[in-house]
Amino acid sequence: MKIQAYLAFNGNCQEALNFYANLFSADIKNKQTYEDKKIDVPSSYRGKLQHAELKGKGVHFMAYDASPDTPLNNGNQINMSVDLDNLDDGKQLFNDLSSGGQVHHEFREREWGHFGRCTDRFGIGWMVNVDK
Length: 132
Prior knowledge:
Pfam families: 3-dmu-9_3-mt (PF06983). The protein has helices at about 15-25, 85-100; strands at about 5-10, 25-35, 50-55, 60-65, 80-85, 100-110, 115-120, 125-130.
């Protein structure tokens, strides 16, 4: 069994994936736009991503731009969880992810290690964890 996250965006999926690819040293793979799909979307939306994957060492998730007739609500339905071994890397990643977003729990020491939770500038929730 394999479980993956599939993130939905309101037309800024490419921008978000570029941000995450840079942050996680990952590659954007299997990009497909709405261009040649038999889906009823406006012509201005045809260049948006109908499917893409972010793949790298320890990271693999899928994402797309939801069609304009699919309402998306920024909320807490999904959090991406990242476990790291290095405290400095954890601090830096948390700072990068929370920049322009919202910090819910400061990245600090907890009983099990260091942890922080934020929502990034794209509305995606992140939990960054470094075990002791």
